[in-house]
Amino acid sequence: LGLYSSTDLDSAEEAVRRALERLDFSWLGHGDAVFVKLACNSGHAHPAVTSPAAVMALCEELFARGAGRVVVGDQAGVESVRLAEGELRYGSTRALMESNGLYEAIVASGAESHFFDDQGYEDGYFEATPPAGHHWARPLMLPRILREVDHIAYLPRLGSHALTGHTHGLKCAVGWLRDDSRHHLHNDAASLHE
Questions:
Q1: What is the DSSP letter of 74?
Q2: Predicted structure pTM score
């Protein structure tokens, strides 16, 4: 969504707004809380990460359509950020977003920023119940913020992955997982796609 023809439109934000005009927001009730899940794997600028223009436009659209609370965030990949038992930590998603423009876009849109690695290894996560037929052999740990919102909107980046190929943005969901769950997901190659 952050790519556009500068001959047709004034800005990337306008390109995103035009795309959003075509979407059905009937799921959004007045006062609802929405978490906007980004893809922030590094401090590099878009297209290495979600487009800041897309963040601003989507958040503004959600507020305009009645959202009461819009929370935007992620936890970067293990190359840049790690969180471990005993509150051990390496790197910061906030610092990466401050360098790639995503943090500024969140603040400018009026949304709340939320970085999973700032919430703590124990306090920031809960054990989720996987669906029937799952392949998880260990606890599936997800961020507590999921229990505070009514809806989730994904703003991924287009990219490929060494193990999964081209995921059309589905890899963005890996960012929900606590580091031990991420390790478990990547460690069992036989069921990775499931």
A1: E
A2: 0.88
Residue located via tokens 């790690």: 82
Return d(Cα 39, Cα 155) in angstroms, integer.
7
- Coil vs helix vs strand at 167: coil
Dihedral angle of Cα 109, 172, 143, 186, to the nearest 10 degrees: -160
Read off the pLDDT of residues 36-88 as tens digits, 9 standing for 90 and up. 999 998 899 888 899 898 899 999 999 999 999 999 999 998 888 888 899 98
- Letter for the amino acid at 30? H
Q: Write down the residue that tokens 């799952």 correspond to.
A: 134
Closest CA relative to residue 176, chosen from 148, 141, 147: 141
Please give the pLDDT value at position 166. 63
DSSP one-letter code for 161: E
Q: 3-state DSSP call for residue 76?
A: coil
Rounded Cα–Cα distance for residues 53 and 57 (Å):
6
Least confident of 2-16, 30-44, 128-142: 2-16
Task: Return the structure tokens found at 74.
Answer: 């992620």
Q: How confident is the model at residue 171 (pLDDT cuts 50, 70, 90)?
A: confident
Place of tokens 């190929």: 165
